[in-house]
Amino acid sequence: MDILKIGQRTFHSRLLVGTGKYKDFDETRAAIEASGAEIVTVAIRRTNIGQDPNTPSLLDVLPPTLYTLLPNTAGCYSAEDAVRTLRLARELLDGHTLVKLEVLGDSHTLFPNMSETVKAAETLVKEGFEVMVYCSDDPIFAQQLQDLGCVAIMPLASLIGSGMGILNPWNLQLIIEKARVPVIVDAGVGTASDAAIAMELGCHGVLMNTAIAQARNPVLMASAMKKGVEAGREAYLAGRMARKLYSASPSSPATGLISPSP
């Protein structure tokens, strides 16, 4: 069976989804159910998971008994803020240690600040967190984060929320070739074909939010993304034929054919 292993946990689905930007919790639940995802990300600074007892909690529609919650540090611009946020998440979720780290460089592009990301990752790993880390597609930084002890490397395909797809497949392949932990594309996926391409390259999974939540029909797009990830993974495992400018050998056999009458 084709299992995704992250840290000490195993999963069947290779599609990870976010929980923001939906019109309401009912749509959130319906889309995530359609996606088949087992891991759902939660922006601790923007989503109520118990911090405010007077407002609805995401945990009411996505209970931890059914999903693996992945607290993330969306909105953090320094290592200090990111570490503080994930310490809070661990308290709110009864010692939960699997987290997604992202430290942003600016509010315009949401590109990762890699020096602060490395600093935060080092602290969190030392404190016993299992860190899945959002990063640039720089192979050197990816290797450094892996060496620090992160359990998954999550390079962007393109900018968060852009829907531009994979802009630099060559860098992704360099990261995958050196990886000893799962490589999960994070950010920039726009449609199911983008997800399939990521998986065909050899990525171990794809994380997305905006591509589903901002689609005209989020539930239908979630279903499409599930199929795209599955198809891409199967194609990768099957091994595609070599690319050729042309082929001199026909698809059909040239022997054993009926000869034309003289």
Distance between the termini: 57 Å
Strand content: 15-25%
Order of helices and strands: EEEHEEHEHEHEHEHEHH
* Spatial strand sequence of the major β-sheet: 5-4-3-10-9
Spatial extent as radius of gyration? 21 Å
- Mean pLDDT level: 92
**Range of helix content:** 25-40%
Largest beta sheet, briefly?
5 strands, parallel
Judging from the principal axes of the Cα atoms, what is the shape? globular
Low-confidence stretches: none
Total strands: 10
Structural class: alpha/beta
Work out the helix count: 8
Structural description of this entry:
The chain has 262 residues and is of the alpha/beta class. Helices cover 35% and strands 16% of the residues. The chain has 8 helices and 10 strands. It has helices at 25-35, 79-92, 114-126, 139-148, 169-178, 192-200, 210-213, 218-238, and strands at 4-6, 9-11, 15-18, 39-43, 68-72, 98-101, 130-135, 152-155, 184-186, 205-208. The chain has a 5-stranded parallel beta sheet. Strands 6-7-8 form a 3-stranded parallel beta sheet, with helices on one face. A two-stranded antiparallel sheet has the order 1-2. Helix 2 runs parallel beside helix 3 (114-126), helix 3 packs parallel to helix 4 (139-148) and helix 4 (139-148) runs parallel beside helix 5. It is globular.
